[in-house]
Structure formats: C-alpha cells, structure tokens
C-alpha cells in the first residue's frame, strides 16, 4: 500500500464533492466563504465521530454531565468572559473582533445585540449552577457539549480547516485548584487515546506547548495537538488550563457538601473540532494502490467510523432469484440491524468494489449462485481485496465484531 502526498488536498476535496461527503456552502449562488454543506456520507462520518466521542467521554463515564445549550446567548456572557474585548484577530494592524454579531427581537425598543457563540464552552459555564443543583456532583466532575460555533474568520481557508461555521466537542472538567496538573496530564492521555481509537494517523500528531504570549486570554497553560496536513503542521485539537477564570467572571462557585467550604473550581478543557477531526480522518484514511493494473483510491476508515459498514449486491442484477435473495435475506435484515448498509447493483462487480472502496466501505457482500444452494455469501475485505465465504447465519456477528 502506498500513500500519495501529491495533490492530496485536491484529491480529498474532489472525492468529498463527487461522492456526496462535503459540498461548498451555497454553491449554486457562488458560495459563501468559510461554509460547507455535508452530504449523506459526510453526515454519516460526522455522526460516527460525534457518537464515538460522546460514548467515550460521556456515556462510559460516571463523572460527566451532558448539555445542549442555546447557540444564542445573552451578550453579557461574552462581556463577562472578555470575548467582547479580547476575541480578536489582527486586520491591517487593527484588532477585529471575530464574534458574529446579530440582533434578537423584532420591535425597535426590544432589539438586543447578541452573538452566535464562538465556543461551546460558555454554554457549560453558564449552566454550571443548574448542573450542580440538579445532579449534586462531587469534584472532580465534567460537563460535555457538542455543537455548532461561529467565528467571523478574516481568512477562511484550507477546506474544513478554517471555517466560519463549524462544530466543537468540548469538555469542561472541574477540579480543586491543587489537582489541576494531575488532570491536565490525565486529559492529555484521554485525548490521545480517542484520536487513536477513531483512526487518526498518530505518526502525524505532534504536541506543541503554546508560549505565554500566544495563549488565549483565558488560559494559563495550553497544549495544541498538531496534525501534519498537506498544507503544513497545524492545530487539530487543544487542551487548556482555564483556571477559575470563567466561573469567577460569571460569579459562580461550588459548595463542598461535606466540608461546607465555598470554592471556585479550576477547569481543564479538552477541546476538539469536529470538522478538523473529519479532515484528519479523511487524510489519514486516504490510500492509493494498484489493483488489476489500475490505480485504486480507497479510504481506510475503521468500521466504527466508515459512513457505510457494508454494501450488499446480487452478482447479476438481471437474475431475479439472486436479487430477491440478496434483498430479502441479506440486505433487509442487515439494514434493520446496522442502518449504515447500502444496496449496490450498478455496473459490474469490479466497478462496485471500486465505488465502495472510494467511500471507505469495509465490507462488500455478494450473493451468487452458490448462495442459493449453500446459504453462504462472499464478504470482500476493502483493504486486502480478499474474499471469504460466510454462512448467512453468522453474518451479523461477523460484522458486529468488527464495529
Ligand atoms: N473553548 C476553547 C476553544 O474554543 P479553540 O482552540 O479556539 O478553543 C477549539 O477552538 C477547536 O475548534 C480547535 O482545536 C479546532 O479543532 C476547532 N476550530 C477552531 N477554529 C476553527 C475554524 N475556524 N474552523 C474549523 N475548526 C476550528
């Protein structure tokens, strides 16, 4: 297997459009810079990324509380956190605030300035008290959120890398001040584990300690996890020690129920961009090799992340007995069980394999004439191209074990 770095971004962008992963936003009107629309396979990829994250960081833990806060927030939130004063980038020597401003309310006297949130984090901080009152968690505990954020980036570029509308997956982990170093190290490990679990090429990940002058205004220590993109080694995800900056600014605190002490917890924040995760996964998965004298492009996604887990085909589409069998005995039950299953009977079998390889489908199941007599099907492996015959009764388990 050989990876081609030449024009890799062009190849990925074109594959994403051609195969229904990701389209330029508002394309028929000339586009809107920094926005992308996700097609059927792209949505599936993104959902798998988010589900895997939520499972690891929320469902599999006992100390995490999920939240889905409103994107529109009272502008006092952003005044209190310093975003109105500091969330800026330089443009022609001047500071330019990159929060997207909007107006809420219809009647003139009721109109209020609001901002589309530039990070999901504040949706968690402003619900810190609600969460503590509802669930009575003991320190350390965390809050987690996945959602859209908006930034009026001066120069959106590099496909999904720098957009004006994107999604974040963030944890705010609340600890006692003296424990911050311990949990910073702990979360570094958790972040690396997840990256490996979803299938990011770990040989392309590098940790960068961000120097004082370059850190966000709220952070006392930040590590960026950088990825080697074709356009350079740049930030993928970040880990920040936000101290008690946010809770203090929102005038929030925590009462230790055993001791009765009032303290302001300190915060460790692992943050992940969903879109950069998708980009890193596409770049990690893209491979080219030669099959039957032709160059084949395929996405080596892990089965848990692949938009389609398996494709089902009758060997010949003009043989009703094969079509009927494939449809009722294979496709329908697998579709009901796994959802991410597609029917593909277009063109010859070689073409179908190439099409599935290109979108990263790990297994292609084919019903042929032997199936009708021995109730077995061929299952072809995307990466090796090898086929094995599997008894139909074992098919669901075979797939389940790989997810
Ligand atoms: N709450 C902390 C925070 O928002 P950030 O480093 O500004 O930190 C977090 O953003 C993550 O969001 C980044 O690590 C990156 O994955 C993603 N991200 C940031 N800006 C982005 C943009 N313009 N387009 C796509 N993803 C972006």
Automatic annotation (TrEMBL):
Aminoacyl-transfer RNA synthetases class-II family profile domain mapped to chain residues: 10-303
Keyword field: Aminoacyl-tRNA synthetase, ATP-binding, Ligase, Nucleotide-binding, Protein biosynthesis
InterPro entries named among the record's database cross-references: aa-tRNA-synt_IIb (IPR002314), aa-tRNA-synth_II (IPR006195), aa-tRNA-synth_II/BPL/LPL (IPR045864), Anticodon-bd (IPR004154), Anticodon-bd_dom_sf (IPR036621), Gly-tRNA_synthase/POLG2 (IPR027031), GlyRS-like_core (IPR033731)
Gene Ontology molecular function: any one: glycine-tRNA ligase activity
Gene Ontology annotations for the cellular component aspect, listed alphabetically: cytoplasm
Keyword Aminoacyl-tRNA synthetase in record: yes
Pfam families: HGTP_anticodon, tRNA-synt_2b
Matches recorded under PROSITE patterns: AA_TRNA_LIGASE_II
GO terms of biological process kind: glycyl-tRNA aminoacylation
NCBIfam families per record: PRK04173.1
Protein name: Glycine--tRNA ligase
Provenance organism: Candidatus Nomurabacteria bacterium RIFCSPHIGHO2_02_FULL_35_13
Lineage: Bacteria, Candidatus Nomuraibacteriota
């Amino acid at each position: 297997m050989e990876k081609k770095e030449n024009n890799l971004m062009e190849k990925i962008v074109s594959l994403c459009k051609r195969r229904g992963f990701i389209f330029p936003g508002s394309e028929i009107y000339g586009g809107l810079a920094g926005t992308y629309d996700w097609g059927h396979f792209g949505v599936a990829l993104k959902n798998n990324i988010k589900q895997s994250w939520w499972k690891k960081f929320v469902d599999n833990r006992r100390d995490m509380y999920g939240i889905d806060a409103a994107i529109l927030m009272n502008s006092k939130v952003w005044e209190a956190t310093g975003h109105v004063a500091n969330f800026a980038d330089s443009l022609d020597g001047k500071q330019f605030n990159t929060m997207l401003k909007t107006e809420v309310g219809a009647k003139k006297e009721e109109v209020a300035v609001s901002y589309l949130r530039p990070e999901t984090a504040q949706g968690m901080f402003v619900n810190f008290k609600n969460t503590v009152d509802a669930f009575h968690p003991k320190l350390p505990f965390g809050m987690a959120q996945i959602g859209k954020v908006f930034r009026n980036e001066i120069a959106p570029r590099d496909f999904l890398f720098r957009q004006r509308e994107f999604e974040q997956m963030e944890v705010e982990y609340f600890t006692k001040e003296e424990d911050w170093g311990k949990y910073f190290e702990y979360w570094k490990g958790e972040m690396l584990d997840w990256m490996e679990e979803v299938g990011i090429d770990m040989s392309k990940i590098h940790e960068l300690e961000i120097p004082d002058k370059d850190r966000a205004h709220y952070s006392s220590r930040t590590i960026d996890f950088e990825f080697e993109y074709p356009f350079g080694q740049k930030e993928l995800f970040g880990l920040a020690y936000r101290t008690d900056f946010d809770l203090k600014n929102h005038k929030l605190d925590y009462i230790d129920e055993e001791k009765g002490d009032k303290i302001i917890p300190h915060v460790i924040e692992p943050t992940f961009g969903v879109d950069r995760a998708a980009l890193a996964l596409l770049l990690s998965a893209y491979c080219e090799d030669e099959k039957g004298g032709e160059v084949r492009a395929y996405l080596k996604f892990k089965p848990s992340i692949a938009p389609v887990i398996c494709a089902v085909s009758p060997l010949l589409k003009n043989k009703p007995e094969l079509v009927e069998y494939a449809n009722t005995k294979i496709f329908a039950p697998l579709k009901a069980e796994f959802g991410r299953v597609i029917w593909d009977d277009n063109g010859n079998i070689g073409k179908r394999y190439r099409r599935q390889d290109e979108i990263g489908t790990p297994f292609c199941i084919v019903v042929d004439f032997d199936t009708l007599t021995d109730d077995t099907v061929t299952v072809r492996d995307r990466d090796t191209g090898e086929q094995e015959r599997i008894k139909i009764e074992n098919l669901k388990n075979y797939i389940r074990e790989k997810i």
